[in-house]
Design goal:
Layout (H helix, E strand, L loop, with lengths): L2 H16 L9 H36 L6 H14 L8 H17 L3 H19 L8 H19 L10 H17 L3 H15 L2 H6 L5 H13 L12 H19 L6 H13 L5 H13 L8 H20 L7 H20 L7 H13 L9 H12 L1 H24 L15 H18 L4 H4 L2 H6 L4 H8 L1 H10 L8 H6 L21 H16 L4 H11 L6 H4 L5 H12 L3 H12 L11
Helix pairs in contact: 1-2, 3-4, 4-5, 5-6, 5-7, 6-7, 7-8, 7-10, 8-10, 10-11, 11-12, 12-13, 13-14, 14-15, 14-16, 17-18, 18-19, 18-25, 18-28
Length: 608
């Protein structure tokens, strides 16, 4: 690699490490807080250097790619590979940009093998980039998946030239692309068809004979694993006989060997049990008993894939079964177990060593945020997500707390003159006087805390801390409004904050995003208007409060609510907001330290 590339990688690794709020907690609050301030200053300096490295070196190199030497191209490929090692996912966006540019180069050069290789690598980059919006149901997310599928489909189409291609590595890219179409297809039937087609190719001796050095058995097992992921469809009655047989065959290939193993992997044993349940071979009670046994045997401090599977994924699966079978929610024994499993899950997540954070771990955070089943008798979703925000999105938590306090100030000023301003919010209308004011201010603070909640699942803060977002990443970023809305509205402890999460980037006079937010249909629209103002101020403040307010009153007319921005002419309110914007956040950090870090035991010392 070239020196600027090595420097960028080193900077980005440092930035990722500096995001860890747990670092230095043993020094006491003052020492820890001083360390956080130093970390922020260091991150800002590293980010500025990264921007210069991209601007001065990478972007010119990509612009001059058609005249580049083989050495420069090889350095770019090595640079991209170091940023995207499929485990740490250090900077997937740069990986995508580089391989997209290389794909264009090889198309112009009519290099068939180069095009195949770059289609596969670009497809993998898009897949990992798309994981930022796992579980988000929105047109933007669907468009990303379709683009990803088409890239893999084009790469797989070169199988018609398989016999003509000399490179075994290139033949491998074609086979891999075939298998990866199933990663992108939205419907189970299409995924099953894609995996079935791949299995036929993998078992065809013609293709194997032409590339004997490829890891065919690993390809075969991986494709069986992809096919077995459709096992939830076994009990729904919408698969044909051939589709059922294909899924079952793969399930037995993957899971059956574990049942008789001396030390079976929980990672594959539970899916086998789940398959038996979906097929009706065993009843719900047996399945729950099996789950309880697997969860109970998972050690707190087993920090590997099997440990995370037993301590995080299995409690989520147990909650899914409870949600799908309401009668279980009245069984005290099952509720008690789920409560314990969820509390153990939270402890494991919060104690997990930061140096072991990787792509799979962040996938589990997404899973917990998306699929946590809130019911009476288990920790509220609000309690869990506050801890997750503090632990894994500390900067987001601090910024959101600041936004919430600004919203409280704005709402207090409005309430002093117009006590009925927020009466469209159902729970506020019946209240009077001081009780109403306190309820309003508490709600405003909570809405501020959760307005950017959708960013938790995206794990995009590290990228934003390293450099500016590219256009495709910004399109993903915009989906945080839909993601936050979907997750918050499904739980009673957070449902009241969902509309604010959805609409805080929508313009009062039309525009902004997302299109799914209809201001006039939301009873919380006035609070969403306040959130839009406060969030904009937090994002744009640069030490000139007067200029910021003038811009919101004049230059951004139609973007913000006139009844809300009218209060920004109040000098007292503006000074309060300015003090919040200028504060170092010590009180917010103190809350994090007290609630999450004080008295924390080192990982691995928990009682078993």
């Amino acid at each position: 690699m070239l020196p600027y590339q090595e420097r960028y990688i080193d900077n980005t690794r440092q930035i990722a490490a500096l995001f860890d709020l747990y670092s230095g907690a043993e020094a006491g609050f003052e020492g820890w807080y001083a360390g956080r301030q130093q970390a922020r200053a260091r991150r800002d300096a590293l980010r500025a250097e990264n921007l210069a490295l991209l601007q001065d070196h990478l972007f010119p190199a990509l612009d001059g790619l058609y005249g580049a030497s083989e050495e420069v191209i090889a350095a770019l490929e090595e640079f991209a590979g170091a940023l995207m090692d499929w485990r740490t996912n250090l900077d997937c966006g740069i990986y995508v940009v580089i391989h997209d540019a290389l794909l264009s180069l090889y198309r112009v050069q009519h290099s068939r093998e180069g095009v195949i290789k770059e289609l596969y690598k670009l497809g993998m980059g898009l897949y990992y980039l798309r994981r930022l919006v796992n579980g988000v149901e929105a047109p933007g997310a669907a468009a990303l998946a379709f683009h990803n599928e088409m890239v893999f489909t084009e790469a797989s189409s070169y199988i018609r030239y398989y016999d003509e291609i000399d490179s075994e590595e290139t033949r491998g890219y074609i086979i891999r692309a075939f298998a990866n179409i199933a990663l992108c297809a939205p419907e189970h039937k299409r995924r099953i068809a894609a995996s079935a087609r791949t299995l036929r190719i993998l078992q065809d001796e013609h293709y194997r004979a032409l590339a004997p050095g490829l890891p065919w058995d690993a390809f075969l097992r991986g494709t069986h694993q992809q096919m077995s992921a459709n096992r939830s469809e076994l009990s729904r009655g919408n698969l044909s006989r051939d589709e059922l047989a294909a899924v079952l065959d793969s399930c037995y290939e993957v899971f059956k060997p574990e049942e008789g193993a001396d030390n079976p992997s929980v990672r594959w044993l539970w899916p086998y049990y789940e398959m038996e349940y979906n097929c009706g071979y065993v009843d719900l009670k047996t399945t729950l008993d099996r789950l309880e046994d697997l969860i109970g045997r998972a050690p707190y401090d087993q920090y590997d894939v099997s440990g995370l599977y037993g301590n995080v994924q299995l409690p989520i699966y147990y909650g899914r079964l409870m949600q799908a079978n309401p009668a279980l929610q009245r069984e005290e024994k099952r509720v008690h177990f789920l409560n314990g499993a969820y509390r153990k899950m939270q402890q494991v997540l919060l104690q997990y060593p930061a140096e072991q954070f990787d792509d799979f771990f962040y996938y589990l955070i997404d899973l917990v945020v998306s699929d946590y089943f809130e019911m009476e008798g288990v920790p509220p979703y609000r309690e869990l997500t506050t801890r997750i925000m503090q632990r894994f999105a500390g900067e987001l938590y601090i910024r959101s707390r600041r936004t919430g306090d600004m919203m409280r100030c704005i709402c207090a000023a409005i309430f002093a003159r117009e006590p009925d301003f927020f009466d469209d919010i159902p729970f506020l209308a019946p209240l009077q006087g001081e009780e109403k004011k306190q309820a309003l201010l508490a709600y405003a603070g909570d809405c501020g805390l959760y307005h950017d909640f959708g960013l938790i699942k995206m794990n995009i803060g590290r990228t934003m801390g390293s450099r500016n977002l590219f256009e495709n990443e910004f399109q993903i970023y915009q989906l945080h409004t839909v993601s936050g809305y979907d997750d918050l509205r499904r739980r009673s402890s957070t449902a009241d904050f969902a509309d604010v999460a959805l609409g805080h980037h929508s313009w009062y006079g039309g525009g902004g995003y997302p299109d799914t937010y209809v201001r006039t249909a939301s009873p919380c629209r006035q609070m969403t208007d306040v959130a839009a103002v406060a969030a904009h101020m937090v994002e744009r403040y640069d030490s000139d409060m007067d200029a910021l307010v003038r811009g919101m009153l004049d230059g951004a007319r139609g973007r913000f609510s006139p009844p809300v921005t009218a209060y920004l002419t109040d000098g007292v309110l503006c000074r309060q907001l300015e003090q919040l914007l200028q504060s170092d956040g010590r009180n917010y950090y103190r809350d994090v330290y007290r609630e999450l870090l004080a008295g924390r035991k080192p990982a691995g010392t928990e009682k078993k």
